[in-house]
Backbone:
């Protein structure tokens, strides 16, 4: 099993799509849920795929371990990999699109719906599955985080037949799974193209880190912050490298070996041993980067790289 220890803006969407293309089974460890996704690709049409999608969601409802699933045949088409609040746009602030927020809110279930349709009698229904799937990070009445105690008797089932796991797991899960992780290939991705890496991260300056986390600039305009105090921008960029170092220290503390993977140079097919290739730039957002603001972001990235002598 491969374990992909990528944080924010580290190619997780790319590796998930690459795994699906090669009919691999993957585990996504999310804030409130664990998703086990089995994808069987029958025909790869380039811009579309004929596939069977099977998703199992392990979750905690009112301190009870549960699972729900959905299996369907579908024609898959790629979603556009765009930064919704890009620093390349004139108004990148997350609160700028009030209309969209209103539309999203109108599609949510009421608290009464959530309480009612997460009762055991509705397990197996599509509405139960949909409620659980929608609340993978926000939480809802009765849908609470998974715990070590709740999962201890279910790890074997969750990881049986898994080819790759992505998203950084919590510390207690690393402790529980230390033996499994030592037997796995633990991958820490990095980019040797420092300019592209910095520009990509600056693209998400206003919303890559929520208000509740360290080094957050949530809702702030990159160019305004840079003109006021550029050290805030440097500190924000530094935090990505610091996060990688934290992951390395955590792995070392449990004697878990890891390997580095260069997203710009290393071969995906050779490294992972999977047959079907995918364009390295498949999930890259650079196709939308243009204009004066983009040129200014590039200048900021170059200044940061020069200061750090990359």
Residues:
């Amino acid at each position: 099993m491969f374990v992909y220890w990528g944080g924010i803006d580290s190619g997780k969407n790319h590796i998930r799509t690459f795994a699906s293309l090669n009919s691999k089974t993957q585990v996504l460890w999310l804030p409130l849920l664990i998703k086990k996704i089995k994808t069987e690709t029958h025909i790869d049409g380039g811009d579309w795929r004929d596939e069977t999608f099977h998703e199992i969601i392990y979750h905690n409802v009112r301190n009870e371990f549960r699972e729900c699933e959905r299996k369907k045949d579908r024609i898959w088409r790629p979603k556009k990999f765009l930064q919704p609040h890009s620093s390349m746009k004139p108004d990148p602030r997350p609160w700028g699109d009030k209309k969209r927020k209103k539309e999203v809110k109108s599609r949510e279930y009421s608290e009464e719906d959530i309480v009612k349709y997460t009762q055991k009698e509705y397990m197996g229904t599509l509405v139960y599955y949909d409620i659980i799937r929608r609340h993978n990070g926000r939480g809802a009445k009765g849908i609470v985080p998974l715990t070590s105690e709740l999962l201890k008797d279910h790890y074997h089932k969750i990881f049986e037949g898994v080819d790759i796991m992505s998203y950084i797991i919590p510390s207690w899960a690393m402790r529980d799974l230390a033996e499994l992780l030592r037997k796995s290939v633990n991958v820490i991705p990095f980019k040797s193209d420092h300019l592209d890496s910095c520009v990509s991260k600056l693209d998400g300056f206003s919303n890559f880190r929520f208000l509740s986390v360290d080094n957050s600039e949530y809702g702030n305009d990159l160019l305004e912050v840079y003109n006021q105090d550029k050290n805030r921008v440097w500190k924000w960029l530094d935090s990505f490298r610091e996060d990688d170092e934290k992951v390395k220290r955590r792995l070392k503390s449990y004697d878990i070996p890891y390997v580095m993977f260069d997203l710009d140079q290393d071969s995906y097919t050779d490294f992972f041993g999977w047959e079907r290739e995918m364009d390295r730039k498949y999930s890259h957002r650079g196709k939308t980067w243009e204009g004066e603001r983009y040129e200014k972001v590039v200048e900021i990235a170059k200044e940061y790289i020069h200061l750090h002598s990359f």
